[in-house]
Amino acid sequence: MSPRLTAATATRVLTQLRHDHRTIALVLLLPCLLIGLIAWMFDGTPVLDQFGPLLVGLFPLLVMFLVTSVATLRERTSGTLERLMTLPIGRADVVVGYAIAFAVLASVQALVVVGFAVGVCGMDVAGPIGLVILVAVLDAVLGCALGLGASALARTEFQAVQLMPAVIFPQIITCGLLMPRDEMPQLLEWLSRVFPLTYALDAMQKLAAGSGWSDVRGDVGVVALFIVGALVVGASTLRRRTP
Questions:
Q1: Domain residues of the chain, as ranges?
Q2: Which domain of life is it from (predicted)?
């Protein structure tokens, strides 16, 4: 793995994203719009304070998964990745370069979403706002990593979109957002332990309740391990399709 080649890949992807105004609008504006609608619907109630931090962690993950999986698959099908693999560049350089580029976009997204939820919508978080931003960034980066890994399973952009229900929806159902995990059937509670979204939203729940770093560092560590694991899967499935 070469830092120079990794940086060159990240720079190329960021340059492409900078000129893709629709994607930037989707990434930055859609989560804010959804959170704003919820704040408007439940104005004067504690709903936003109770569920807002969870949505701040969930929406960036969903959007970044979709954007990353489709964008990466587009590069696969257009032959860009195929041409890259003919050059003296390692698979890790390509995957980490893509991950860095999308992580930069994810970080900007997380800052915008948290700032909008707290500063505009008035969401109240009892825990440190810096940790809320950190977890939101990790959640968005997790969406990028899962999208990179999932893109290897699809052959068309439509298939990449179809992967979202298969990869994300089971996690939403079992992560504790709809029902406390300790009240679920035991099999589903066990299943929730192997999904990264469980730990991402658990950290947000703790921060919303006023917890600090010592209470969420375990969840943050698990999310970071899932990010690394998804990138390893993405690198292992990246290969030339033609001799």
A1: 3-237
A2: Bacteria
